[in-house]
């Protein structure tokens, strides 16, 4: 009888110890590893108020914003994709809350937010906190987020590939381009990796008059279109652009890398790339065939620098 009582007491003691551990978060149902501090993304401190608006400027466009409390209101600034405005919806809220932001280069930012009658900082610039792609300059507030428009590819790797193509500056394609009115528009290379295509283009301004870019379009059109027949066009929208410029000075040249979803072109169609001058007539265009697409250079990720 004493042995049974002793076993029961030991059993109840174990249960009590487990319950005590459960209350402080050390034990969960199932096999669990506790999250350590080296896995934490330290938040930035942010003060908001009711009568003033706090603006946060990010290096790239904002894809996602989450507010931890209805005491906050936030949204993109009108006409700006990389600026959010934040303010309090009630005066003197006491409980601290949080704000999280994901940008289109796959970076994650988090802020702990509290109320202040007079915030110390009303305008915040986050550019200096973003990493440049190297492991030695990677702040602990930015993590790689996989975005839907890039499929299974990391935004970090996409940017590194575009930077590498721009840095190497090779002319793999030598037969595609246009030249009129002192402006030359070239396709220097087509590359592919993991379901994405990379187009390396160059604008040479051989005149003395600056060339202002209005817009660039990529569209698949019929090779032969009968008169009085509506032209069927399929617009291809780039997912990313590296070194996208809007002006080429006289006697200068500029290069841009465009990233797109993988596509091919039917035999009776072609890809037309159009470069249009703003308030001018020195427009350029060139044609890309399906045979050019399927011969795209495969990128070796081990050689991306």
Lay out the secondary structure.
Blueprint: H1 2-23, E1 44-48, E2 54-57, E3 62-67, E4 72-76, E5 83-88, E6 97-103, E7 108-115, E8 123-125, H2 155-168, E9 177-180, E10 183-193, E11 196-205, E12 211-222, E13 233-236, E14 240-242, E15 247-248, E16 252-261, E17 269-277, E18 284-288, H3 290-294, E19 297-298
Parallel strand pairs: 1-7, 2-8, 10-19
Antiparallel strand pairs: 2-5, 3-6, 4-5, 6-7, 9-10, 10-11, 11-16, 12-13, 12-15, 12-17, 14-16, 17-18
Give a structural overview:
The protein is mostly beta strands and 305 residues long. About 4% of the residues have low confidence. It has 3 domains: 33 residues; 109 residues, Sandwich (Immunoglobulin-like); 148 residues, Immunoglobulin-like, CATH 2.60.40. Strands 9, 10, 11, 14, 16 and 19 form a 6-stranded mixed beta sheet that branches. Strands 12, 13, 15, 17 and 18 form a 5-stranded antiparallel beta sheet that branches. The longest helix is centred in the first third of the chain and has 22 residues.
Order of helical and strand elements: HEEEEEEEEHEEEEEEEEEEHE
How confident overall, as mean pLDDT?
83
How can the largest sheet be summarized?
6 strands, mixed
Tally of domains: 3
| Stretches with pLDDT under 50, minimum 5 residues | 129-139
Tell me, what's the shape? elongated
Rg estimate, integer Å = 28 Å
Structural class: mainly beta
CATH class descriptor name of the largest domain: Mainly Beta
Q: How many β-strand stretches?
A: 19
Give the DSSP E fraction (strand runs of 2 or more residues).
Answer: 35-45%
């Amino acid at each position: 009888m004493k042995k049974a009582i002793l076993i029961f007491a030991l059993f109840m003691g174990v249960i009590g110890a487990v319950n005590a551990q459960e209350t402080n978060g050390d034990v969960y149902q199932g096999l669990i590893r506790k999250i350590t501090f080296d896995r934490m993304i330290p938040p930035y401190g942010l003060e908001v108020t009711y009568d003033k608006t706090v603006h946060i400027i990010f290096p790239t466009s904002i894809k996602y914003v989450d507010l931890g409390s209805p005491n906050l209101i936030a949204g993109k600034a009108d006409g700006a994709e990389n600026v959010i405005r934040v303010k309090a919806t009630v005066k003197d809220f006491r409980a601290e809350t949080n704000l999280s932001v994901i940008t289109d280069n796959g970076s994650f930012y988090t802020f702990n937010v509290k109320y202040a009658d007079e915030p110390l900082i009303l305008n915040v610039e986050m550019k200096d906190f973003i990493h440049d792609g190297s492991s030695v300059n990677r702040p602990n507030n930015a993590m790689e987020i996989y975005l839907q428009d890039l499929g299974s590819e990391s935004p970090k790797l996409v940017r590194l590939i575009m930077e590498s193509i721009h840095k190497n500056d090779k002319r793999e394609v030598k037969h595609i381009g246009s030249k009129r009115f002192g402006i030359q528009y070239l396709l220097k290379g087509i590359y592919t990796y993991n379901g994405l295509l990379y187009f390396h283009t160059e604008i040479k301004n051989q005149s003395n008059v600056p060339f202002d870019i209005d817009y660039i379009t990529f569209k698949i059109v019929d090779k032969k279109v009968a008169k009085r027949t509506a032209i069927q066009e399929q617009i291809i929208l780039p997912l990313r652009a590296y070194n996208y410029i809007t002006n080429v000075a006289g006697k200068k040249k500029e290069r841009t890398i465009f990233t797109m979803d993988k596509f091919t072109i039917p035999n009776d169609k072609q890809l037309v790339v159009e470069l249009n001058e703003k308030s001018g007539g020195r427009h350029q265009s060139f044609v890309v065939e399906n045979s050019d697409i399927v011969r795209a250079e495969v990128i070796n990720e081990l050689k991306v620098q």
